[in-house]
C-alpha cells in the first residue's frame, strides 16, 4: 500500500467553466492571484503532490499511476480537506462540471458527444449513420430502428466501424433500390456501469431523382395575352433551384411582367412580340446531389395583334381563387406567392390585415411577387393580402398563415450530486404547438410505476424521494408532439461528502450600472448544504439564490462594496468585492439617411462611457458586418465619431450600426441608409371621358426610388403656338393617378405629366396623343379697359391684349364702343380692330367718355361688357392760385394759405399744388452781402384738396420769397406773384471751437470762436463750469460783450478736473453749448521708468514723461569707469523727447550714466557696450576707388543734362494754369504751423505740409497775425464730448485767438520736442 501511495501524482489544470473565473466581470471575467501547488499532509497518507495551474481553455488531466474510482478517492480524502488551503480543492473534483472535467482513472457516466444526424440518401455513399459518446468505463453502443432493436453488425449489407467512444455503420450495397429497407427513425444508446445515455432521433430517407424523357412543347398566343410555360421538375424531398435559360445558357430576362413561380414555371403577365423565341429551357438544379436537369426547350410564338392590345384588369394566375391557407413550423422559412396577369403590368402590394409586417423577418422577392418569412415565429401567424392593381382595376388574394412549433426546451433538468436520503426534483419543461407531451426513461428504459419513491408532476417534473446509491443513473426526459420529439440526458449521482465552499476567495466582480450582478458562493457537499449560507454585506440582504449566490438586479454605484459569504455552523467563509462602472450610453445616435446616388452620407455617433474604462472603441457595422476604413476607393472614412460613406450607390443601402465598446459593456444604435433619387417619369398616359371643354387624363406612376411622390404636375402644349413651350395646367397629390382637366375652345392639345418628390422632379413623361377642342364664341372680354390719351383733342382707348387661347374661334377681333358721358344720349359709336390701342380724334380736351371693348369671332360675340369712364387728353393748367397768404408761427415755421383753383382751368386731373420757397439770405447787419448769396429754392407739394400748408425747418432771422402753382399730369401752370417774408430771430448755434490753455497750476484760459449760425444779433456769451464731481456746484460767468473770445479763470483746484459749457446769446435766448473737459497743467518733473539699451558705439535711453506735467530739461552725464570724473561728457535733453541716443562710445567698455535735474542726480545706471574693444583694420571698399567715382559722376552729369532738355521742351510745348490750382479749395487739414510757435508737429502733419508747399505763399492761414499766439501755450486733448477737437482746430478762424496746433504731451500728438522758447509750454489736459 505504501508503494501505491508513493506512486500517486495528481496534476490539476483548470477547465474553463464558471468555477475557474477569478475576476468576474459582466462578460465573464474575474481576478485572483491564486496560482500555487497544493500539498497534502503526510500524517495519514504518504506524500503526493497536486499542482494547480490556472490556464483558460486548457484541459483537465488527472494522471493516476494506479486507477482509483471517484467515489473511493473522495471518501479517502474527505476527512483531510478542511485544514488545507485553498479550500477550493473539491472544485476540481466534485463540481457540477465534474463529468466533463475528469478523464482517465475516474468512473464517469456516458455522455453522447456526437448525435446521429438525419440524412436523405441520394446515392449509396450518403448512407452513413454515426454516434459518439464519452464515459469511463468506455460506453457500449446499441441502436434501435423505429423503436425496435437494430444490430447493423448482423446485417450482411452493412459495414460497422467501432472505436473507443464511437460507433458508425454504412451500406455495402451497390444499388439504391436495396437502401429503401433502411428508411426509418434511429436512436443510439451508450451504456456503462453508471447508466445509459440516449441520442436524439435521426431520420433516414432515400430519394432518387431521375430525368424523364419529355416531348418538345410549342406554345402560341396573341400579343397582350398572358401565358404560362410549364417546367414540371421531378418530384423530390429536396427543393430545387429553377433557372430559365436560352440555348446560349444565358438567363431569360425577368421583370415585373415575366417572373418564375415557386412551381418552376415561367409566367407572362402579358405578351409582347419580343417574347417570341424557340429556346425557353427550364434547368432544375439540386444542390445536395450537385446535379442539374435540363428540360426540353419550349417554343413560344407571339402573334401580333391587328389593333392596339386592350388593357385588362389584374387577375390571379397563381394561386387561384381568393383565399389560401398555409401551415408552417416555428423557425422555418415560408414563402407566400402572388403572380398576376394584366395590361398594363399590375403593381403588387403586400399588407397584413391584423397588424404590421415584420421588417426583420420578412423580405420581398421576385419583383414583389413573393413575401418571404425567415425564422418565422408564432407572432407571424395571421392574415396577409397581396393586392395587384393597374389602371383597369385590382385583384386581391388572402393568405391565412398558421404557425405551429415542434417541441423546444424552456427548462432542462440539471446533472447533480446528491446524498443518500435526499429528495431529487428533475424539472423538465418544453413548449410547442400543439403542447408537447413529457415522458421519462431511466437508462433508456421507460419509467416504472412500481417504485412508490418516483412520481411525475402535472408540469412534467420527476421527483425521486429518499434516494440511495442504487438511484445513480442517467435519466432521459423526452418532449414530443406531432411535429417531432426532443430528448435530454440528466445524470443523478448519489454520494456522501462533507460541505465545502467551492468559489474562490477574494474575487472582484465588475459590472456596469443597470446590469444584473451575480456574486457566486457555490458549495459542495453531500448532503448538499441547505439554507446555510448568509451574505453579510454593507447594506441589507438582497436576493439570495438557492445555490448560495447573491443576485442584485439593476445594480447601481451605491451597491459597490465588500460582501462576505459564510456557511453556518462552520468556519468556512469567503469575501467578494463588487465594483460598478457607469453604463456606456449613446448620447446622439446616428440618424436615418436618404441620399441621392453619388453623394456622401454621414452618420454621427456620440457616446459617453466611464473614464475608468479608457477610450471606448467605436465599431461600425453594415447589416451586422464589420466595416473597415477604405484606402483605395475611400468608400468608408472614419473621422472620430463620424462615418462617411462616399459615392453612395445601390450596394450601400442597409442598416448601419454604431457599436461603442468598452472592456465592460457595449452600447449600440442603428440607422438606415436609403438610396433615393428623383422619380421615374409616369407612363401610359390615356385620355378618357372627353366632354365639351374637359377631359380626364390618367397615367401610371414610375418608380419613386424610395422617396414618395408628393405631387404630379400636368403640362400642356398648344400645337398652334409651340413657341410658348410646355405650360403647367394643374397639379394633383402624389397618391392620385388621374386628373380632370378644364380646356379652352379652338385649341390643339398635347399633355405630359411630371412626378415630384423630395429629391426633385422626374423627367417628363412621353406626350399624349393630340386632343382638339371645338370653336365657340368668346367666353370673356379683354381686361383693364382704360384711356391713356396724350395728344390734345384725342381719345386713346386701350386694354390688355387677350391671349390666343382665349379667342375661342377663327376671325377674332375687338369691337370698340364709346360715347360722351354728358349730352350725347344713348347712341354708341363703334369700330373694330385686331389689337389695341384705338384712337378717336377731334373730341376736345379732357372730356369724359363711356368706353367698352368686346371680343368677337366667327362664332359670335363675347359677353356684354360693363362701360368704364375715360378722358380725352389733358393740357397744362391755365391759371395760378389766388389769395396766397403767409402766417408766421415761430422763427422756423410758417403757414401758407391760398384759394381753391377753378377746376375748369386745370384742363386735366388736378394732382395738387406746388409751393416754391426761396431763401434770400440772413437779416443780419451785412445786408449789403445778400445780393452775393445764391438763393436756394425748396419745392413743397400738396394734395389736390388742400388749401393750406404748414412748412417748418426754416432758417431763423432770414429773408424768403414764396410762390404757388397748380399741376396736373401734363405739367404745372403759372406761378403766383412772389410773396416776400422774414423769419424771426432765434437762439444761436454753438460756438465753432473751444480751446483750453493753462498758464499756471491754478489758471485756465478759454479761447473760442463765435457761432457759425448766430440766427440773430449776438449779444454775448454764457460760460458755466464745475468740477467733474457731479455733486459740485455749477459756476456761471456772463460775458456781455459779443466781441470777447477769451476768458481766464483763476484760483482753480490743481488736483481737480473741470467740465466747461459755453453758449452764445441773442435777445431770444441762450443757444446750444459747446462742451469741454480739462484740467490745469502741473509744474515740470523729471521723467520716470528710464531704460537703456546698449550697442557697440551707442546707447539708447528711453523714458516716460509724467502726464499733466510740463516738459523739463535735464542732463545725462556719462564717463568710463576706469577714467573717473576726468572723462565726463554731458548732453542736455528735454523730457518731452521720450528718448535720446548717446553716440561715440567705445566698444567693450564699462560706463557710468548719471541723470541730473536742478543739479541733483535723480537716476544712475552702469552699462557695458558690446564688442571686444579691439580696433579692426577697415578693408578698402570698391566704392572708394577712383574708377568707380568717375563712372558715377558721368552718369549724374548725363541725367542732369537730360532733365534740362525735358524742362525746356515742356516750357515750349504748352501752358499750365496756375491760377486754377490756386483758386481751388484748400484742405483745412493742410495748415502750416510755425516752429517758433509750437516747436513740433506730428509726422502726419509734416507730410501734409510738405506735400503742399505753396499754401503759405498766398494764404492768410500762415500769416504772422494768424499765428501770433503765445508759444508757451498749447493744449493737451483727451476727448471732446460734443465734437472732435481735431475738427475744431481744422476750421478756419476769423480772429487772432484761433489755435492751430496741439500741446506736446497731447494724446493725439505723442511725440514731444522741447519748445523753441523756454522749453516749458503752458498746457491743459482736456479730458472730453
TrEMBL record:
CDD domains the UniProt entry points to: FN3
Biased composition, class Polar residues, residue ranges: 1133-1142, 1303-1328
Family classification: Belongs to the immunoglobulin superfamily. L1/neurofascin/NgCAM family.
GO annotation terms (biological process): axon guidance; brain development
Protein task: Neural cell adhesion molecule involved in the dynamics of cell adhesion and in the generation of transmembrane signals at tyrosine kinase receptors. During brain development, critical in multiple processes, including neuronal migration, axonal growth and fasciculation, and synaptogenesis. In the mature brain, plays a role in the dynamics of neuronal structure and function, including synaptic plasticity.
Domain Fibronectin type-III: 681-776, 781-875, 880-986, 990-1084, 1086-1181
Entries under PROSITE patterns matching the protein: FN3, IG_LIKE
Domain of life the protein comes from: Eukaryota
Bilayer-spanning residue ranges: 1187-1208
An example molecular function term from Gene Ontology annotations: cell-cell adhesion mediator activity
Region of interest (Disordered), residue spans: 760-791, 1123-1142, 1215-1252, 1285-1328
The protein's name in its UniProt record: Neural cell adhesion molecule L1
Subcellular location: Cell membrane; Cell projection, Growth cone
Ranges of biased composition (kind: Basic and acidic residues): 1123-1132, 1217-1237
An annotated GO cellular component: growth cone
PANTHER family recorded: L1 CELL ADHESION MOLECULE, PROTEIN SIDEKICK
Boundaries of every Ig-like domain copy: 110-206, 221-299, 314-402, 407-493, 499-575, 583-674
Keyword annotations from UniProtKB, A to Z: Cell adhesion, Cell membrane, Cell projection, Disulfide bond, Glycoprotein, Immunoglobulin domain, Membrane, Repeat, Signal, Transmembrane, Transmembrane helix
Gene: l1cama
This protein's record includes keyword Nucleotidyltransferase: no
Record's bilayer topology term: Single-pass type I membrane protein
Amino acid at each position: 500500500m505504501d508503494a501505491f501511495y508513493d506512486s500517486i501524482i495528481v496534476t490539476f489544470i483548470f477547465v474553463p467553466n464558471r468555477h475557474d473565473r477569478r475576476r468576474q466581470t459582466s462578460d465573464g471575467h474575474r481576478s485572483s492571484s491564486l496560482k500555487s501547488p497544493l500539498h497534502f499532509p503526510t500524517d495519514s497518507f504518504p506524500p503526493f503532490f497536486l499542482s494547480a495551474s490556472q490556464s483558460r481553455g486548457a484541459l483537465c488531466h488527472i494522471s493516476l499511476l494506479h486507477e482509483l474510482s471517484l467515489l473511493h478517492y473522495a471518501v479517502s480524502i474527505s476527512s483531510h480537506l478542511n485544514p488545507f488551503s485553498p479550500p477550493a480543492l473539491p472544485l476540481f473534483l466534485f463540481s457540477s462540471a465534474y463529468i466533463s472535467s475528469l478523464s482517465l482513472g475516474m468512473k464517469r457516466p456516458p455522455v453522447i458527444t456526437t448525435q446521429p444526424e438525419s440524412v436523405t440518401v441520394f446515392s449509396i455513399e450518403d448512407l452513413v449513420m454515426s454516434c459518439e459518446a464519452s464515459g469511463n468505463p468506455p460506453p457500449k453502443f446499441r441502436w434501435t430502428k423505429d423503436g425496435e432493436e437494430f444490430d447493423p453488425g448482423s446485417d450482411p449489407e452493412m459495414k460497422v466501424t467501432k472505436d473507443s467512444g464511437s460507433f458508425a455503420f454504412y451500406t455495402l450495397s451497390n444499388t439504391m433500390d436495396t437502401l429503401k429497407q433502411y428508411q426509418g427513425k434511429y436512436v443510439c444508446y451508450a451504456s456503462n456501469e453508471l447508466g445509459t445515455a440516449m441520442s436524439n432521433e435521426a431520420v433516414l430517407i432515400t430519394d432518387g431523382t431521375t430525368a424523364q424523357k419529355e416531348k418538345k412543347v410549342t406554345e402560341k398566343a396573341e400579343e397582350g395575352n398572358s401565358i404560362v410555360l410549364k417546367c414540371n421538375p421531378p418530384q423530390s424531398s429536396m427543393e430545387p433551384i429553377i433557372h430559365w435559360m436560352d440555348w446560349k445558357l444565358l438567363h431569360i430576362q425577368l421583370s415585373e411582367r415575366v417572373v418564375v413561380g415557386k412551381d418552376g414555371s415561367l409566367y407572362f403577365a402579358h405578351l409582347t412580340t419580343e417574347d417570341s423565341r424557340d429556346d425557353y429551357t427550364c434547368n432544375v438544379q439540386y444542390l445536395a446531389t450537385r446535379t442539374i436537369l435540363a428540360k426540353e426547350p419550349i417554343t413560344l410564338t407571339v402573334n401580333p395583334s391587328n389593333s392596339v392590345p386592350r388593357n385588362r384588369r389584374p387577375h390571379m394566375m397563381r394561386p387561384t381563387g381568393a383565399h389560401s391557407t398555409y401551415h408552417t413550423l416555428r423557425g422555418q422559412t415560408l414563402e407566400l406567392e402572388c403572380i398576376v396577369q394584366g395590361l398594363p403590368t399590375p403593381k403588387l402590394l403586400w399588407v397584413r390585415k391584423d397588424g404590421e409586417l415584420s421588417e426583420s423577418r420578412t423580405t420581398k422577392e421576385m419583383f414583389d411577387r413573393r413575401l418571404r418569412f425567415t425564422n418565422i415565429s408564432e407572432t407571424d401567424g395571421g392574415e396577409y393580402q397581396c393586392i395587384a392593381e393597374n389602371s383597369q382595376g385590382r385583384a386581391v388574394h388572402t393568405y391565412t398563415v398558421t404557425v405551429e412549433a415542434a417541441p423546444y426546451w424552456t427548462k432542462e433538468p440539471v446533472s447533480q450530486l446528491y446524498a443518500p436520503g435526499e429528495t431529487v426534483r428533475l424539472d423538465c419543461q418544453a413548449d410547442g404547438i400543439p403542447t408537447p407531451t413529457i415522458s421519462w426513461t431511466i437508462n433508456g428504459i421507460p419509467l416504472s410505476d412500481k417504485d412508490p419513491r418516483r412520481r411525475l408532476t402535472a408540469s412534467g417534473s420527476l421527483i425521486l424521494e429518499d434516494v440511495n446509491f442504487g438511484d445513480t443513473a442517467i435519466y432521459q426526459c423526452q418532449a414530443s408532439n406531432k411535429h417531432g420529439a426532443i430528448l435530454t440526458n440528466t445524470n443523478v449521482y448519489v454520494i456522501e461528502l462533507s460541505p465545502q465552499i467551492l468559489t474562490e476567495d477574494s474575487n472582484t466582480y465588475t459590472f456596469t450600472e443597470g446590469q444584473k450582478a451575480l456574486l457566486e458562493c457555490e458549495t459542495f457537499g453531500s448532503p448538499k448544504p441547505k439554507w446555510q449560507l448568509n451574505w453579510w454585506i454593507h447594506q441589507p440582504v438582497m436576493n439570495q439564490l438557492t445555490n448560495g449566490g447573491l443576485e442584485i438586479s439593476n445594480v447601481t454605484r451605491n451597491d459597490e462594496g465588500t460582501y462576505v459569504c459564510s456557511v453556518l455552523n462552520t468556519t468556512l467563509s469567503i469575501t467578494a468585492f463588487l465594483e460598478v462602472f457607469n453604463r456606456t450610453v449613446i448620447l446622439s445616435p446616428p440618424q436615418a439617411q436618404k441620399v441621392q446616388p453619388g453623394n456622401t452620407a454621414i452618420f454621427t455617433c456620440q457616446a459617453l462611457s466611464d473614464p475608468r474604462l479608457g477610450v471606448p472603441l467605436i465599431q461600425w457595422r453594415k447589416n451586422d458586418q464589420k466595416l473597415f476604413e477604405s484606402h483605395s476607393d475611400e468608400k468608408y472614412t472614419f473621422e472620430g465619431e463620424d462615418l462617411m460613406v462616399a459615392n453612395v450607390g445601390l450596394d450601400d443601402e442597409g442598416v448601419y450600426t454604431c457599436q461603442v465598446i468598452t472592456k465592460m459593456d457595449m452600447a449600440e444604435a442603428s440607422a438606415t441608409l436609403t438610396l433615393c433619387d428623383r422619380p421615374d417619369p409616369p407612363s401610359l398616359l390615356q385620355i378618357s371621358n372627353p366632354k365639351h371643354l374637359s377631359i380626364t387624363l390618367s397615367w401610371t406612376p414610375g418608380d419613386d426610388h424610395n422617396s414618395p411622390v408628393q405631387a404630379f404636375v400636368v403640362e400642356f402644349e398648344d400645337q398652334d403656338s409651340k413657341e410658348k413651350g410646355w405650360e403647367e395646367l394643374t397639379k394633383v397629390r402624389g397618391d392620385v393617378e388621374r386628373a380632370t382637366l378644364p380646356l379652352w375652345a379652338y385649341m390643339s392639345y398635347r399633355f405630359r405629366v411630371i412626378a415630384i418628390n423630395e429629391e426633385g422632379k422626374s423627367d417628363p413623361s412621353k406626350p399624349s396623343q393630340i386632343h382638339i377642342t371645338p370653336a365657340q364664341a368668346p367666353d370673356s372680354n379683354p381686361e383693364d379697359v382704360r384711356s391713356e390719351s396724350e395728344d390734345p383733342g384725342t381719345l386713346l382707348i386701350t386694354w390688355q391684349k387677350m391671349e390666343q387661347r382665349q379667342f375661342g374661334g377663327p376671325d377674332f377681333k375687338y369691337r370698340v364702343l364709346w360715347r360722351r358721358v354728358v349730352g350725347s344720349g344713348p347712341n354708341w359709336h363703334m369700330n373694330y380692330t385686331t389689337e389695341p390701342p384705338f384712337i378717336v380724334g377731334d373730341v376736345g380736351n379732357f372730356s369724359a367718355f363711356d368706353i367698352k371693348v368686346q371680343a368677337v369671332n366667327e362664332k359670335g360675340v363675347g359677353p356684354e361688357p360693363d362701360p368704364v369712364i375715360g378722358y380725352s387728353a389733358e393740357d397744362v393748367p391755365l391759371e395760378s392760385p389766388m389769395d396766397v397768404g403767409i402766417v408766421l408761427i415761430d422763427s422756423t415755421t410758417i403757414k401758407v394759405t391760398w384759394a381753391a383753383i377753378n377746376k375748369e382751368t386745370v384742363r386735366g386731373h388736378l394732382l395738387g399744388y406746388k409751393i416754391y420757397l426761396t431763401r434770400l439770405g440772413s437779416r443780419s447787419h451785412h445786408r449789403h452781402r445778400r445780393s452775393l448769396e445764391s438763393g436756394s429754392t425748396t419745392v413743397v407739394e400738396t394734395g389736390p384738396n388742400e388749401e393750406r400748408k404748414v412748412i417748418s425747418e426754416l432758417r431763423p432771422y432770414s429773408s424768403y420769397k414764396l410762390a404757388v402753382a397748380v399741376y396736373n399730369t401734363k405739367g404745372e401752370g403759372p406761378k403766383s406773384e412772389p410773396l416776400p417774408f422774414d423769419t424771426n430771430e432765434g437762439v444761436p448755434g454753438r460756438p465753432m471751437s473751444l480751446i483750453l490753455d493753462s498758464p499756471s497750476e491754478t489758471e485756465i484760459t478759454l479761447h473760442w470762436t463765435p457761432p457759425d449760425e448766430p440766427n440773430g444779433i449776438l449779444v454775448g456769451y454764457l460760460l458755466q463750469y464745475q468740477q467733474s464731481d457731479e455733486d459740485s456746484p455749477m459756476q456761471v460767468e456772463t460775458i456781455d460783450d459779443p466781441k470777447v473770445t477769451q476768458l481766464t479763470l483763476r484760483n482753480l483746484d490743481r488736483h481737480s478736473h473741470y467740465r466747461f459749457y459755453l453758449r452764445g446769446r441773442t435777445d431770444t435766448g441762450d443757444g446750444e453749448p459747446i462742451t469741454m473737459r480739462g484740467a490745469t497743467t502741473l509744474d515740470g518733473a523729471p521723467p520716470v521708468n528710464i531704460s537703456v539699451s546698449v550697442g557697440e558705439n551707442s546707447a539708447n535711453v528711453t523714458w516716460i514723461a509724467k502726464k499733466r506735467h510740463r516738459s523739463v530739461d535735464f542732463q545725462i552725464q556719462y564717463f568710463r569707469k576706469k577714467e573717473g570724473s576726468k572723462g565726463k561728457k554731458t548732453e542736455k535733453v528735454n523730457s518731452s523727447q521720450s528718448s535720446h541716443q548717446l553716440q561715440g562710445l567705445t566698444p567693450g567698455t564699462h560706463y557710468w550714466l548719471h541723470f541730473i535735474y536742478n543739479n541733483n542726480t535723480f537716476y544712475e545706471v552702469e552699462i557695458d557696450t558690446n564688442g571686444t574693444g579691439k580696433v579692426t583694420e577697415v578693408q578698402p571698399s570698391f566704392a572708394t576707388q577712383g574708377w568707380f567715382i568717375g563712372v558715377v559722376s558721368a552718369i549724374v552729369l548725363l541725367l542732369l543734362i537730360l532733365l534740362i532738355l525735358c524742362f525746356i521742351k515742356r516750357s515750349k510745348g504748352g501752358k499750365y494754369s496756375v491760377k486754377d490750382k490756386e483758386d481751388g479749395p484748400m484742405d483745412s487739414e493742410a495748415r502750416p504751423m510755425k516752429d517758433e510757435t509750437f516747436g513740433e508737429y506730428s509726422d502726419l502733419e509734416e507730410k501734409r505740409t510738405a506735400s503742399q508747399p505753396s499754401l503759405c505763399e498766398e494764404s492768410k492761414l500762415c500769416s504772422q497775425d494768424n499765428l501770433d499766439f503765445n508759444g508757451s501755450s498749447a493744449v493737451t486733448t483727451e476727448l471732446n464730448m460734443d465734437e472732435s477737437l481735431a475738427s475744431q482746430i481744422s476750421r478756419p478762424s476769423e480772429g487772432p485767438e484761433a489755435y492751430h496746433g496741439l500741446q506736446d504731451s497731447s494724446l493725439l500728438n505723442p511725440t514731444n520736442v522741447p519748445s523753441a522758447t523756454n522749453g516749458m509750454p503752458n498746457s491743459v489736459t482736456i479730458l472730453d
